[in-house]
Design a protein that fits this description.
Layout: H1 32-51, E1 74-79, E2 82-86, E3 92-95, E4 101-104, H2 112-122, E5 127-131, H3 137-140, H4 143-149, E6 167-171, H5 172-181, E7 194-196, E8 200-205, E9 208-214, E10 223-227, E11 232-234, H6 255-268, E12 280-282, H7 291-313, H8 318-322, H9 333-336, H10 344-361
Parallel strand pairs: 4-5, 5-6, 6-7, 11-12
Antiparallel strand pairs: 1-2, 2-3, 3-4, 8-9, 9-10, 10-11
Helix pairs in contact: 6-7, 7-10
Length: about 350
């Protein structure tokens, strides 16, 4: 049996997207202890880099400033009742059947018509439920259009005096973040009117049970969605096949939350053969994954987290960690450091801020 969970933090051998602050050039000189620690960390990284095979990516991050008119969406059957609509921003999962459509995330507002056309090509049934997994525009931008295009499974007006339209669902913490940010940045028609406050919300649609599980990750309001009958997980920002995971520190995102979430996914996933096949995992961006992909991603993040933690414990500042050669993300950069809006440097700074804040609070 494969051991899926990483070691506890004490036994490891080892923000916002506009957060691009560089440490000041006037950092204090390295003391002897720090110089020795830096050398040890760098030596360890070099050894790890030599042993680690670099895997090239088969996909690229979504463009930072896309020409929406030139984009095309693509629909892929994942398995069971679940399909993936890609190319409209973040990956969109749709479950279809006689009961209607359950949609996970909505993409950018500018791509709404393309997404609705892709759904219409799959089924003539209406959109019933829309789930948001996180805060970012590429996940929630088309909320209003998807809600307006949907309807509840009933005649007459909707619930609580609302129009008969699709039901937008998210964790209560995500709604809190949206209201704190305010309607100047996030229009109120993107806010979820239906929320849950516990660890999960479950319901039944199209012949299978569906679980929405709250898992703080990129933000404090993140969730993932498990289609139990189809054996598919829409992972949201827990898992990204094109980039290091986004951590919105200002809105409660943490590396520990992401690692906890990935360990939870690994507890759920059942592979068909040698970590391949079986449960399929839809990432926020990039190709569909399975247990092997999630396991590799979890292990990479654990290694990077532990390197940053070791550097902090050795007395290194953020500037000194950025100056390490090779870097703490060295062997993973060819594949995952390809998004100019979320670079390896920004990722390391987010981890540093998480761990430094935890250290100060302990």
């Amino acid at each position: 049996m494969t051991e899926r969970r990483a070691d506890d933090r004490g036994h490891a051998p080892a923000m916002d997207r506009t957060m691009r602050r560089d440490p000041g050039a006037g950092s204090r000189p390295l003391g002897r202890r720090a110089r020795v620690a830096l050398a040890l960390v760098a030596a360890g990284l070099a050894a790890g880099a030599a042993a680690q095979e670099v895997r090239t990516a088969r996909q690229t991050p979504f463009p930072a400033n896309p020409d929406f008119a030139a984009l095309d969406v693509e629909t892929l059957h994942v398995q069971g009742n679940v399909y993936l609509i890609a190319g409209a921003g973040a990956n969109i999962a749709v479950q279809v059947g006689d009961d209607g459509v359950v949609m996970v995330d909505t993409g950018y507002a500018q791509m709404a018509d393309d997404v609705l056309a892709a759904v219409a090509a799959l089924t003539d049934r209406p959109i019933r439920t829309i789930v948001n997994t996180t805060l970012a525009d590429d996940h929630t931008g088309a909320n209003a259009q998807m809600v307006a295009a949907g309807r509840l499974n009933q005649a007459g007006p909707g619930m609580a005096g609302r129009p008969n339209e699709g039901d937008l669902v998210a964790h209560a913490e995500l709604l809190r973040l949206m209201t704190e940010i305010g309607d100047d940045e996030i229009a109120t028609d993107r806010w979820p009117p239906s929320t849950f406050s516990g660890a999960k919300k479950d319901f039944h649609a199209n012949g299978e049970a569906i679980e929405i599980r709250h898992q703080p990750a990129a933000t404090a309001g993140d969730s993932f969605v498990w289609f139990r009958g189809s054996d598919v997980i829409a992972a949201g920002e827990l898992f990204n096949m094109t980039s290091f995971p986004y951590i919105d520190v200002e809105h409660g995102g943490t590396i520990e939350g992401i690692l906890d979430g990935l360990n939870t996914l690994l507890d759920i996933i059942v592979p068909a053969h040698h970590q391949e096949g079986g449960t399929m995992v839809i990432p926020s961006h990039g190709r569909i994954g399975d247990e092997h992909d999630v396991l590799e991603y979890r292990d990479m993040l654990t290694i990077i987290r532990d390197r940053v933690q070791h550097a902090i414990d050795s007395g290194l500042t953020l500037a000194q960690i950025h100056a390490l050669t090779p870097s703490v993300t060295y062997e993973y950069e060819p594949r995952f450091d390809r998004d100019p809006t979320w670079t390896a440097r920004m990722f390391v700074e987010a981890i540093y801020r998480n761990l430094a804040a935890e250290r100060e609070g302990s």
